[in-house]
Amino acid sequence: MARDPQLEQLKFRDPDRARALAAALAREVAAIGRSPISVMHVCGSHEQSIARFGLRAVFPKDLQVIMGPGCPVCVTDMPEVDEAVALALAGHRIATYGDMMKVPGSGRSLADTVGEGAKIDVVYGVQQAVDLARAHPDEEVVFFASGFETTAVATAAVLMNGVPKNFSVLSAHKYIPPAMEIVAEMPGTRIEGFLAAGHAAAITGAAVFEPFVARHRVPVVVGGFEPLDVLAALVRLTELIREGRAEVANMYPRVVTREGNKPAQERLWKVFRPIGGRWRGIAHIPNGNLRLRDEWAHVDARKRFSIEVSRLADRAPRALAQRCICGDIMAGLRQPTDCELFGKECLPDSPVGACMVSSEGSCRIWHAYGGLPDLREVG
Amino acid sequence: MSPAGKEPQDRVLIKHGAGGRAMRALIEDVFLSLGGPIDGIGLSALDDGAAIRFGDLHIVITTDSHVVHPIFFPGGDIGRLSISGTVNDLAMMGATEPLGLTCAVIIEEGFSRDDLLRIRDSMKRACEEAGTTIVTGDTKVMGKGEVDGIVINTAGVAVVKRVVTDAGLSAGDQIIVTGTIGDHGMAVMTRRRDLAIEGNLRSDVAPLNGLVRAALTAGGEDVVAMKDPTRGGLASSLSEMAAKAKVGILLKESQLPLNPEVRAAGEILGIDPLVVANEGKAVIGVRATSAEKVLAAVREHPLGRQAAIIGYAIRERPGNLILDTGFGKRLIAEIEGEPLPRIC
Amino acid sequence: MCLGVPGKVLAIDGMEATVDFFGVTKQLRLDIVDEPVSVGDYVLNHVGFAIRRIPPAEVPETLALFEEVLKGAGPGDLMAAEVFGEMAAAKPGREKV
């Protein structure tokens, strides 16, 4: 009888195996002998998985698993949001992924413009944005494209398939490997290893980390998102740290290969080019932003429209914004609970920084799942 | 288009109706002062209904307005919802024999008469299941575009000797849920938005007074708290129960009854079934000694076959809802507004 | 939550596939998956596109990989041996659905 991968998938949530892996993790960390050992992941979905399954309760106390800049919406800089807000106020229909709605620009978020009559549609896939353009042929439909390279591939594919004349893309896509470089070079960083995102690596291939590992001499392990995937990847990572081996290891072979998805990579780089840009609150990341190549100017919202953002500074940035430590949090230097605004003035409903807005932001995730209270003894 | 609008804080927003924290804040800020001292359980309790002492009984009253869209969905419609919602609110207060329901409708000009009859028939069936009737009502028609299709308000009244509130939990009490969670909200979510997912997701909308009667008969005064987890889901209701009783609640994820399709839809959409509405389920807090007895009685009832004890109240962390995932424990937060799917 | 549950391809129409996830179906685009996909295959979804065809043999291979990781883990292999015994004794049908 043929195996059913969907049911097999559930094996990756087996509590017994999880306990075994957690014990192995504890042994590795103990064998390393230092404390704390800091490792970083760069994927909102990893943080979601860790939070949702309560895995932090299972990690050894001496292991710090820090979330780095793995939230593409959170790192979308204010000027980029302002561009979308300006287009919305100019009367164009904006299609965007839900998380982008509430990210504050220099004054307003896209959600704020809805109350002023702007047309914003939340979509769950870029194809839907194209369908919207077909449904509203008399309007300009701008897709405010957020997400890392995995998501950018979808945008590229849709553009290559041909889109209606009234459709354009305002790209806020980001590229993760350059950000890992910057974080690894930051003073004050003590990251000894990285857990890389499985789905991004499905596209780019595990090999994309080989130059990084050679340059920075820290191991990178590609991991999946089920509880066992996360635990096993961390066991491998701490094993590599213990043995002093700066290598790339693939612990998600059912999805990730060394070379990745070549056709997808080709599409990505045919449509997009990496340029340097500021990641909100962190730093200038060389090659961290993905913009449409010149050949795609005809669907580039930045070329189609002249976007006036200067009038948006009419609302002074809130004083609170100056006390926001999102940047440090995304760089892995501080935690949400270190922020004096966290859970008080800064809440999902009234976010100050982008980390609280996006469902992949560490502040939002910590707030939703209760931060890091020690619940081991409860019940 | 000039940005002449006011600050969003001066306006009521959609999230204020979503059943979570924002809605409670609106009620507390705006409407609470309309309440006053009464002999019984009134507005300030913010319970499913009110209970006014009358001799040695309580009159229990409740009201609900229904604006669900689409008005017809797999498993039910706005008619069934409007009857069940009110019957269930009465039942959650311990009042399982409604004396009668009111029904006020506001209909948009141009609304299909066939649809209206379909809704009417559905209401009739639901009343029969609940053993009650509509005793009075009101009908209004508004111009096209002035109201969205149809709005139905129902109110219900009953008398009861002992009122069960949602604030009665103590440490050690067991929490029973009467069946699978997230069915209604997930069914409506997948229909309402252009998410391009299909499945056999059906709403669980049903009147629960018979089921609750069975639970109360079996457990008597050991049934200490009840609530129906509608908007905001189990997470919202249990958080409220924990806060009002000043206890924590610990749930075991492996014990939560869940339809595989609801689980799958939740995974794909990135929405937790715990925060999504149920319209045919109740959470019942029972003293530990009677928990198994009440569970058995609930399971005997056709609407309670998949009932389970999902956790218990604890002394620590009052007001918090904690989930034991099988790997570790984490807090469950209330949602702020409408749960939105994640990109995935 | 993008946990990467594989979806089973039920039908294909050009570049559109109908994919099943535990009884819930979704339309996915096949433009960017790097291998030909047939009905009965399993794929990984991201924002409405299949990004990878998952070979059915991968799950047991991954579990074997995890076991290897347990084997190599630090000193204290007596404990590991015990754990292996535990895992070997665990029957495949134990998982709750």
The count of strands of chain A amounts to: 11
**Approximately how much beta-strand content do the residues of chain B carry?**
25-35%
CATH fourth-tier homologous superfamily of the largest domain in chain A: HypD, alpha/beta domain 2
Q: Would you report the number of β strands of chain B?
A: 16
CATH class of the largest domain in chain A: Alpha Beta
Describe the biggest sheet of chain A? 5 strands, parallel
- Kindly give the count of domains of chain B: 2
Task: Describe the 3D structure.
The complex is a heterotrimer of chains A (379), B (344) and C (97). With 379 residues, chain A is of the alpha/beta class. The mean pLDDT of chain A is 88. Chain A folds into three domains: 126 residues, Rossmann fold (3-Layer(aba) Sandwich); 151 residues, Rossmann fold; 44 residues, no CATH class. The radius of gyration of chain A is 21 Å and the shape is globular. With 344 residues, chain B is an alpha+beta fold. Chain B folds into two domains: 126 residues, 2-Layer Sandwich (60s Ribosomal Protein L30, Chain: A), CATH 3.30.1330; 159 residues, PurM-like C-terminal domain (Phosphoribosyl-aminoimidazole Synthetase, Chain A, domain 2, Alpha-Beta Complex), CATH 3.90.650.10. Chain B has eight helices and 16 strands. In chain B, helix 3 links the parallel strand 6 and strand 7. In chain B, helix 5 packs antiparallel against helix 8. Chain B is globular and about 55 Å long. Chain C is α+β, with helices and mostly antiparallel strands. Chain C folds into two domains: 48 residues, Roll (SH3 type barrels), CATH 2.30.30; 33 residues, no CATH class. Chain C contains two helices and five strands, in the order βββββαα. Chain C has a five-stranded antiparallel β-sheet with strand order 3-2-1-4-5, with no helix packed on it. The longest helix of chain C is centred in the middle third of the chain and has 14 residues. The C terminus of chain C is likely disordered. The chains are: A alpha/beta (379), B alpha+beta (344), C alpha+beta (97). At the A-C interface, helix 1, helix 2, helix 3, helix 6 and helix 7 of A face strand 4, strand 5, helix 1 and helix 2 of C.
